[in-house]
Amino acid sequence: MAAGKIRDPKLFYETGATTMFASRTDQRFSYCLYVPHHRDGDPQRYPLIVIQHGTGRTAGQYRDAMADFCEAHRCVVLAPLFPAGIVDPDDLHNFKFIAYRDIRFDLVLLDMVDQVADRFPVDAGRFLLHGFSGGGQFTHRFLYLHPHRLAAASIGAPGRITELDDGKPWWLGTHGFADRFGAPPDLDAIRQVPVQLVVGAEDVETWEINNPSDTNWMDGVEQTGSTRIERLQTLRRNYEGHGIAVRFDLVDGVAHEGTLVLPTVSAFFADVLATTAPR
User: Fold this and answer.
1) d(CA 225, CA 252)
2) Residue 95 and residue 206: Cα distance in Å, rounded?
3) What DSSP assignment string belongs to the chain?
4) pLDDT interval class at 57 (50, 70, 90)
5) Contact 136, 256 (CB under 8 A)
6) Alpha carbon of 15 to those of 4, 32, 64, 102: distances in Å?
7) What's the pLDDT at 49?
8) pLDDT band at residue 279, thresholds of 50, 70 and 90?
9) Which residue, 97, 85, 83, is CA-closest to 180?
10) Which candidate in 75, 165, 199, 247 could, as Cys together with 157 as Cys, close a disulfide (CB 3.0–4.6 Å)?
């Protein structure tokens, strides 16, 4: 055995970049964390940031990219993993649309948040949520369902958007939302959530988002814009038309690269955390 510092095995795997933990209610799903190393003067409970992956399922990569931010701002990052091929072996997309067969991905995430709060000193009442691409799709739909759980929502480059519009069917709009999810979107609560829309200024490729006949296509998507930039601008107009204040960030020199927009997301989150007193 090599000589070295003796560590507490449990603390070693629950500080810094953690291993993957299985969801306690549905072990098809898992999550990892970044937990800052303890310092004197830390809050009793750390703010919680959730980073939702996209189609590539790069949960650990996003978590690692936020490590320095966590140490500097004394917060915990939770990165869920929703594997591809759950139920349908060919599926890549179902988590983005919240509900699939007997799975409610929003509720899976909320249970993970509660599970983390039971094990770690985090303030899970309201958390900050960011997702990019497929994760951006999940994030803005989660906002419609659970605004009361969000301290902020950062919506990154979604290829398909859901407008707050009862004249359009789900998921292009919110017609039938109450029948599907139990209640209509609470616009007053949504207006209280700081919202960032963020996309790279070079995010103009369309091969992945203009794909008629694929499982994640609905006729009418093309009317929201040709590129992710145009679609996010459509979402911006929709939100502002409903009185939802939006911070719109177009990141110079960046294409469809989630880790490269994280500095801009981090700046937004830093502003939100600066207005939140530690507990």
Assistant:
1) 20
2) 21
3) --------HHHHTTSEE---EE-SS-TT-EEEEEEPPP-TT--SSEEEEEEE--TT--HHHHHHHTHHHHHHHT-EEEEEE--TTSSSTT-S-GGGGSEETTEEHHHHHHHHHHHHHHHS-EEEEEEEEEEETHHHHHHHHHHHH-GGGEEEEEEE--SS---S-TTSBTTTS-BTHHHHHSS---HHHHHTS-EEEEEETT----TTT--TTSTT--TTGGGG-SSHHHHHHHHHHHHHHTT--EEEEEETT--S-HHHHHHHHHHHHHHHHHTS---
4) very high
5) no
6) 18, 11, 13, 34
7) 98
8) very low
9) 97
10) 199
Q: How far does Cα 254 stand from its chain's mean position?
A: 20
A 10 A CB-CB count for 246 gives 17
Q: Residue 50 forms beta bridges with which residues?
A: 78, 129
| Amino acid at the residue 49 | I
In whole numbers, what is the pLDDT of the chain averaged over residues?
94
Q: What is the full DSSP assignment across 218-243?
A: -TTGGGG-SSHHHHHHHHHHHHHHTT
Residue pointed to by tokens 């591809």:
84
Cα–Cα distance for residue pair 207/256, rounded to 1 Å: 12
Average pLDDT of 151-173?
98
Q: Which residues pair with 250 in a beta bridge?
A: 199
Which residues, in sequence order, are CB contacts of 110 under 8 Å at separation 6+?
146, 149
What integer pLDDT is reported at residue 213 of this predicted model? 81
Angle at 101 between CA 95 and CA 106, to 5 degrees: 40
140 has a pLDDT exceeding 70 = yes
CA distances from 7 to 3, 12, 13, 50, 119 (A): 12, 7, 10, 28, 19
**Per-residue confidence band for 97, with pLDDT thresholds at 50, 70 and 90:** very high
